[in-house]
Amino acid sequence: MLVLLAFIIIFHITSAALLFIATIDNAWWVGEEFFADIWRVCVNNTNCTEIDDSIQEFSTVQAVQATMILSTILCCIAFLIFVLQLFRLKQGERFVLTSIIQLMSCLCVMIAASIYTDRREDIHKNNPTLYALTSDGSYGYSFILAWVAFAFTFISGLMYLILRKRK
Gene Ontology cellular component (predicted)? Predict the structure, then answer.
């Protein structure tokens, strides 16, 4: 059982790390001369433009930002609750709250990545020069890490549900 708990702790910490990297790092959409994320667009590694309310689809960007931050916070809270429940609750009651919070984190990261997938083009249409540059690109590793974090948080949430009855 200790090996299983150690595996779950490492898995959960990995999920949180993936969420932090996906939220902070600047590689959601990349091309030869630029890279962009949910916070800014950088051209030639020197000219960075913050995504602000001057962009037509700013509410879309805010939704992605908010859900990624919420997902990261929920994942960290779930870990703290897991540690507290590990020693405080009796068998059968353990990890249900942790599972619920982890699955909410999973839902948030899924919503953020889905919105970004659907509305990525709309984010830069207000600036024609920037849109022409960023239209030829591909999804970067931070975007992929967000989807991997979705899978990890989902699996982790299910593991907590299965673990609730184990001794």
Answer: apical plasma membrane; Golgi membrane; membrane raft; nucleus; perinuclear region of cytoplasm
